[in-house]
Structure to design on (162 residues):
């Protein structure tokens, strides 16, 4: 089973698309305390509704919190949440980081760290028959304004072809 280590960007996009609960139901989803602080604690201070949904899934144990034993050195353009997710990556097995943050993606690519973007999870769930094509397209449509246009088009095409 896939183990997804989610950063704040991914959590927020998946929540806004209405698909975080499905992702957590079908896969082992993990966040670090740093990511939880960014997405939930800071989100609640700013009155973001998605923070409450994320907190609900954490309290329900659908979304697990796990912290790395050691931390990687911080990078100038990356936050504590991203670095804690990268640190945890090296301590877990069968793991993939989920992010849509371009600076973090660049870091992941430079360090040969496996990652996925949130939109790809709609395709993955559809390919694995965890959701149907219609549901995958609904999730992708809800994410449309949050992702790059070419990503939206490519994932939509892949969902339609499969």
């Amino acid at each position: 089973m896939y183990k997804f280590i989610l950063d704040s960007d991914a959590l927020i996009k998946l929540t806004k698309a209405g698909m975080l609960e499905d992702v957590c139901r079908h896969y082992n989803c993990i966040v670090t305390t740093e990511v939880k602080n960014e997405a939930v604690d800071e989100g609640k201070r700013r009155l973001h509704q998605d923070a409450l949904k994320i907190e609900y899934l954490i309290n329900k144990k659908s979304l697990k919190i796990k912290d790395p034993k050691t931390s990687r050195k911080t990078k100038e353009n990356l936050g504590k949440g991203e670095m804690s997710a990268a640190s945890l990556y090296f301590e877990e097995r069968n793991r993939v980081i989920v992010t849509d943050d371009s600076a973090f993606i660049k870091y992941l690519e430079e360090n040969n760290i496996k990652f996925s973007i949130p939109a790809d999870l709609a395709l993955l769930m559809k390919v694995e028959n965890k959701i149907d094509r219609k549901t995958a397209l609904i999730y992708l449509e809800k994410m449309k304004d949050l992702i790059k246009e070419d990503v939206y088009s490519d994932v939509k095409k892949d969902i339609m072809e499969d």
The chain has one domain: 3-118.
